[in-house]
């Protein structure tokens, strides 16, 4: 079946099987490999992207379910920040990406795209969260390296909150 989705501001129209998960549509049909596949069961959050501005685990949706919708992946996050005039740092990143970099909020990096996308969504809902709210807000995303301390620190810094 033909599925058309707006991905990172670009129309992506591809012929895929009707059972194609959004994560596979993004990685295989669109060539956007920043969205990681960690479990295929919605347990880890490595595949988190934004659909119409809300964080979703892309292994839980069929691409056909969101035909015509707007998807932002980790690759498109900095572009959004540039367009909004909020990009930061030498690399011209989204403020959350810059905060993860500055706070050393990654170890192996596998969970990082999903964590960043979930954290951006969290701050959209709770602009100045407490440490407890950050931990609760990210509980659906797993870091196998146990880097949670610096991840929480990065989210708090991006929110302008105390560390």
Describe this structure in words.
The protein is an alpha+beta fold and 163 residues long. The protein has 6 helices and 5 strands; from the N terminus they run ββαβββααααα. A hairpin with a 2-residue loop joins β3 and β4 (54-57).
Give a short synopsis of this structure.
Helix content is 37%, strand content 14%.
What is the terminal separation in angstroms? Answer: 49 Å
Please tell me the CATH architecture of the largest domain by its name. Answer: Orthogonal Bundle
Note poorly predicted spans. none
What summary fits the major beta sheet? 5 strands, mixed
- Overall spatial form: globular
Strand content range: 5-15%
Strand order of the largest sheet: 2-1-5-3-4
Instruction: Return the string of H and E elements.
Output: EEHEEEHHHHH
Number of strands: 5
CATH superfamily of the largest domain: [2Fe-2S]-binding domain
> At the third CATH level, what is the topology name of the largest domain?
DNA polymerase, domain 1
**Average of the residue pLDDT scores:** 94
> If helices are DSSP runs of H or I spanning 4 or more residues, what is the number of helices?
6
Helix/strand structural class: alpha+beta
Helicity range of the residues?
25-40%
CATH class of the largest domain: Mainly Alpha
What gyration radius follows from the Cα positions, in whole Å? 15 Å
Summed up, the domain count is: 2
